[in-house]
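Sequence of 16425_t:CDS:1 (Funneliformis geosporum).
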Amino acid sequence: MFELKEVSREIAHQALKAASYKLPKNNKVTELRQALFMLRLEQRAGRLRQTHQIKKIRKEIAHNLTKQNQARIVKDEASGGKI
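Predicted 3D structure, token representation.
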């Protein structure tokens, strides 16, 4: 990905990192998805002892996405837009 002759890997990495800050993110959902991914990896490797954590994180993701969607709907209704 960073094999351009004029741009070093380090500079390209810094540019991507800087550009990613401009993108809108829901940090909580992103963190939860990363945690879920790591738990699934541990489960596949046979190292996960607390399997209930997977279900718990999935519910937290759904809860956060629901809150986000409800806030969007309220914002759209307040601005007079349709859903």
